[in-house]
Amino acid sequence: MKALLALAASLVTACSSLLDVSTSSGATAGHGATASGEVVVPDLIGKSPDEAAALVARAGFTSPMESSRPVECVDAPTIEGKINCQDPAPGRAVKPYTIVQVNVYQPTRIAGAIVRSQLAALIGKTPAQARAALATYGHDGHVTVEPTARDVPDCAAGRVCGFDVPESGMGIHDAITLYVNPPVE
Q1: What is the C-alpha separation between 47 and 100, in angstroms, rounded?
Q2: What are the residues whose beta carbons fall under 8 Å from the beta carbon of 116, sequence distance 6 or more?
Q3: Domains of the chain with bracketed CATH
Q4: Pairing label, strands 143-147, 176-180
Q5: What is the pLDDT of residues 144-181, one digit of tens each?
Q6: pTM recorded for the entire structure
Q7: Partners of residue 17 on adjacent β-strands
Q8: Residues paired with residue 34 on neighbouring β-strands, in sequence order
């Protein structure tokens, strides 16, 4: 019986040393921590700041997530109010005191103006939806709706397919013409 217990103890010791070796290479050992005491950076892209902060805390970071310093974003998603890039990168094992920096996307807005990205959001809307969107931007200028000169591919009938605004945008009091694909006859 003593020989059987000794064999079992040596097997447990051998298995636990194998487990230590396998987790030290960066695999998680529970709650985002690695065997070397590091934590794994969660993927925060597309999350709201509150969701991301909770993930960072749950991963075991000792400092809160920050968005005060700019983070370089290349080809990042552009969903307003959502995180579009982070540093360190997701999946990296880092020390728990590492500060996770994020960028929360906010589109460009200029007081008294409607910028190109806001105007681009009008494409595909009905004229009534486009007028409502313009009003949310503070637009109080005249809106004219005219049919397009020719059918615009990839733009549904009765939908805004274009507008007559300079590349730089327009003022909130300026007139705008919305060009709409004519209805299918």
Answers
A1: 14
A2: 165, 167, 168, 169
A3: 26-104 (3.30.10.20), 113-180 (3.30.10.20)
A4: parallel
A5: 999 998 888 888 999 999 998 887 789 999 999 999 98
A6: 0.51
A7: none
A8: 28
